[in-house]
Amino acid sequence: MTDPAAHRDDLxxxxxxxxxxxxxxESADLLSRRPAGLAADLLRxxxxxxxxxxxxxxxxxxxxxxxxxxxxxxGAAPLDQGAMFLFEGDACGMRARxxxxxxxxxxxxxxxxxxxxxxxxxxxxxxxxAASELSRRMEAxxxxxxxxxxxxxxxxxxxxxxxxxxxVPRLTARAADLEAGRRRAGRQARRxxxxxxxxxxxxxxxxxxxxxxLVLLAAAAAASMLPIAxxxxx
Length: 234
Hints:
This protein is an all-alpha fold. Among the domains are: about 1-90; about 185-234. Helices cover about 75% and strands about 0% of the residues. The protein contains 10 helices and no strands. α1 (about 5-30) packs antiparallel against α2 (about 35-50). The radius of gyration is 25 Å and the shape is elongated. The two termini are about 30 Å apart.
């Protein structure tokens, strides 16, 4: 069984690496087209925009971009220290975390709340994920939100942190719905294949019956992306 704390740490580390790569690419692109001072200002502008996002991974990217801007101002290569932009701070300072939690929990609930679930699905839509993978990614996003909503290293304001926190049960519920739907679809597909198998194996009265059964069987196999032999084996 996977240790939940280790799993959360792994998700945070992955988000840091993704942000590092994205921020380095953006820094290199801007520096190739703009003076260093202007490139740093543009990076800070993007960082400020991302600091208002209800996605924890956007908050991590915001921190990476802000760090890259500081590096450019100091004459250093952007993010030369790698993922340490996230891990050099104190994430475990309980006094700082408690202060953030108190401020967040004092926030009124936004009406309507940000549609984090819908936006996350829109972000993943180009990947055309199967329901099982979408469910897994949704669950992982919930755990990342849970891990970082009160992280003192991030620049998010209390209202934004409140939105991040409130998204955790919604993402978790959507992941569960996707998984339940996938299982229902699997059961229905198995029942359909069993009915078709029974139709094929039953001796038809006329040759036309065989032809109809084989057509139906081929269609079912194609729809389920399985060979006919697999349908007959079920």
